[in-house]
Fold each of these.
Amino acid sequence: MDLEQLRKTAAEVVVREDVKYLIGWKQGSYGYRVAPVFVEDASGAAELLFSPLCTANLATYLTLVEKTPLPRGQEADKRKVALLVKGCDSRAVTQLIVEHGINRDQVIVVGCPCPGVVDTEKLAEKYPEQGKPAEVEWNGENFVLLCDDKETELPRDQFLAEKCRLCRHPNPVISDITVGEPVEPWTLADDNGVEEIEGKNLEERQAYWEEQFSKCIRCYSCRNVCPLCYCQDCILDRLNPTWVNRAVNFSENTAFNIARAFHLAGRCIECGECERVCPANIPLGKLNRKMAREVRDKYGFEPGVDPEAEPFQASFKPDDPEDFIL
Amino acid sequence: MSENYEPNIVAFLCNWCSYAGADLAGTSRVHYPANIQVIRVMCSGRVNPLYVMNALQQGADGVLISGCHPGDCHYMEGNFYARRRMGMLKDLMEFVGVDPKRFHMSWVSASEGHKWKEVVEKTVEEAREAGPFEGFRRRQIDW
Ligand code: SF4
Ligand code: SF4
Ligand code: SF4
């Protein structure tokens, strides 16, 4: 990835009259951190970064903007928001368009074809984070870690993030401007963690998920980070009626986790953010991938690839499977 | 499991077909197991997956959702949505270890009192096989 080209393109975009700001990544404060940045003028574009550390899905910010009521007589700011996206992030944008979460003409998608990002947890395990920022770059197949003027080669098969091992769309599915050359999609890993659980019997599965869900502290990070969990009136915050009690115990945690996974069935674009931010290390990706697989295999639907599609749970086909119906 | 274990089934029936079907079974004096607690909803498409979760949390051993036959929905297509969503929910619950025998869906029209009886018998029988639901039942907090 040519950073110069990225920064130049971004600078050209932000100076446009009809652009409010550009959301991108910049170097974080220490270690392998990468921070989101809102670039409002050409000089800010010099900070932008696109590297194997840019795991975060910035599409979340599109719906986070608070829409406060306008004082009388004041015009709404109708300028567009530009956004840097990887392949998976572009699917989130597409899905948001499908759901009318955002309007297509309100975003400028700056696509960055993505050769895959690193799993920073694994990286920090092997090469502990230091007080100052480190850099990671793509180098052919592999990654290189640049730290203390040392270059360390990071083999791809060891450090590639799980979501990338299973990524079907490394190139942005929609983009107004593309920076860099498209990448060649790679062969998917065959272990997605779902079959492993399906191989267990009911009691074992119950035991497995009881152990997992019991760890949940109901911080709702998984919801807040998700680009597609943007309901203004989330069912988990409702008190009257209280759909999911706030108590933190296995029963309520299960109800919560099932509700979350269900609400994202046919919508989750497998960016892996929920699992990455979960402080309890609950394998939320397995739930998401299980649902994504059912949606794909049984209903022939893949979310976030076609901006013209009907939302999965708000549509039906007359011949949907009904073998489970008495 | 004790010998005389009786499963608790919560049934969500749509107002226009299945509820009327169950009513017909009653007025025609068809005998069916008394394990069913009926909750009337306007449409099977109105059943939120959290209804199912809540029922299981609060003491149900099985859940039944029943609506009009495809194409007969009072609201034209509510049951098609229900079918898609409940199919997904069933897969998800099975994945986290809930016995699929606890979750059923059926199409029962207003004239199918006898089909209602069969559906209830099958639901109760399967829930009985699955035994009392322990899973994620809400437990009384012992302060
Ligand atoms: S549920 Fe997780 S993987 Fe799916 S879109 Fe949301 S954050 Fe990404
Ligand atoms: S958990 Fe459900 S209700 Fe809450 S924000 Fe996500 S999709 Fe919306
Ligand atoms: S991020 Fe993890 S711990 Fe927090 S609410 Fe979600 S599943 Fe629970």
Amino acid sequence: MTSTTEILRETAARLLASGAVEMVIGFRQGTIPMMNEPCFVRKPAEAGLLVWDSHCGINLANYVTDRKEKKIGIVAKGCDSRNLVTHILENKIRREQLVVIGVPCRGMADKRKIAMKCPGEILRVHETETAITAEGEGFTRTFEKADVLQHNCSLCTHRNPVIHDELAGEPVEEQQGVDRYADVRAVEAMSPEQRWKYFEDLLAPCIRCYACRNACPLCYCPTCFVDESRPQWVGKGQDPVDVRTFHFLRAYHCAGRCTDCGACERACPVGINMRLFTKKLEKDCLELFGWEAGLSLEVRPALDHYRPNDPNDFIR
Amino acid sequence: MGIEPGRLQFSWISSAESTKFVTVAAQVTEAVRALGPNTRFIKPLAEVA
Ligand code: SF4
Ligand code: SF4
Ligand code: SF4
């Protein structure tokens, strides 16, 4: 058990016992390795369910949308806290309803990277600060954590929670000098034909399960545009044009809001990197408006704030 | 996405700027004609025998 787990359990039990919160949203051990699941703890005695390790990649901000409890404790790593800020700015929850239990984050492990390097089914995992060990029938493999991080985590520059009321551990050093957008630049450099082909291939395996959308805290519309039938904005099958329309429209709905938490990519059953779309918009927001989502409760997001010097060269 | 440059254009025209509207519409039409028929984001209708 890592000490973060102990601090989280102690904090949750304390907050619940004193009545400071009605429930705490955190992670518990998943039913299969490397798949910790969200868990709602309502009694101090249940706080022992909470865990913390490198498999808590789901974004918990997704679970506070429109909740009515007066006080909710929520475990938040850097990206979750940024999505909480976004939720607060978008009136999906009020700051006063939240007791944010921040966890300075060292990055989440990519279960696919680990599974691909193991010869059989992984039955157990355990970890130290810097290494993850996976065990299965007849094999044991140990990985440097840095080698098996989720792609977004290896590029993350906001690992410490941006808002918190409690902190489960010492702040971590932020990664410096990260080149966040090498992959986006590579796509930008392509010709339109190459780019069309590139996305055709990228999205070809998509089965339209919408796990990416459902995992995303930004995708909280009561009826998503893909589910509407009157009018039907986009076909519901696997025609490549419909698949592409779904992906790029969803990305636009996340423009200026996406924190690159990676929950969407993590959730995809076929391993599509749809973050490329949201990252392009993130890059544009940063370059054109100096905007990074979810860093402050004081600043209005780029897309709902007009400034006279906003770039508009593309309009004539 | 892979849409050819020029196929998608943006303009901001006030309802008072009728001449600008005409000019822009003509320019856009010309530019898009030059690109030829669009092949992307098109779903062919099912062939009916
Ligand atoms: S994106 Fe950053 S804060 Fe979020 S899990 Fe990865 S490293 Fe942690
Ligand atoms: S689009 Fe993906 S990376 Fe962005 S906030 Fe949603 S789940 Fe996170
Ligand atoms: S999770 Fe993956 S397969 Fe499912 S809709 Fe999203 S991209 Fe497609």
